[in-house]
Amino acid sequence: MPRVTQREQYNRHLFLRTAWTDPSKQTCLAVLSATEQWKIHTFYRPSEELTLKQFRNHLHIIQRDHPQLRHVSGKLYRRIEHAVAQHTQRQTKQQASAEGRKQNKVPARRGGPVVVYGVVRPKPDLNKLLKALVEMAREEQDEDNKSRS
């Protein structure tokens, strides 16, 4: 199989960046385990907006320090690419079927299991973390107030 050029690697970075920044496509990253997602973040850095020059410098360092990561990341990229293609196809079908029927203001709830996917973040979202901590403190305070009443 031919080697992927640095420009093609950069195009993959841009593709993954789009998937990373589009909330509807972010779940496509969850087709990988957390460990596999970390490998994608280490090699392609989709959470960062990089120029071609910055990405080339990054590739040089990664290939020197982790030469096997190029091959592994390429395989993982293909899985994400496939998941995004399926997601796009589903969206297109849903939009086409929605155009042909009357839209309800409130979508009907489909019974069945709720599926939760994990998407790793290379850097913690401090705002979300702060909100979670504040909410936990409020809940604890409410429980204390109820037990004292």
Keywords for this structure?
mainly alpha; 149 residues
Write the layout of secondary structure elements.
Blueprint: H1 6-21, H2 23-26, H3 34-44, H4 52-65, H5 69-99, H6 126-148
Helix pairs in contact: 1-4, 1-5, 3-5
Summarize this entry quickly:
With 149 residues, this protein is an all-alpha fold. It has helices at 6-21, 23-26, 34-44, 52-65, 69-99, 126-148.
Q: Tell me the fraction of residues in β-strands, as a range.
A: under 5%
The ordered string of helix (H) and strand (E) elements is: HHHHHH
Give the C-alpha Rg: 21 Å
Q: What average pLDDT do the residues reach?
A: 86
**How many beta-strand elements?**
0
Low-confidence stretches: none
> What does the largest sheet look like?
none
What percent of residues adopt helix (DSSP H or I)?
A: 55-70%
Tally of contiguous helical segments: 6
Structural class: mainly alpha
Task: Label the overall shape.
Answer: extended
First-to-last CA distance: 71 Å
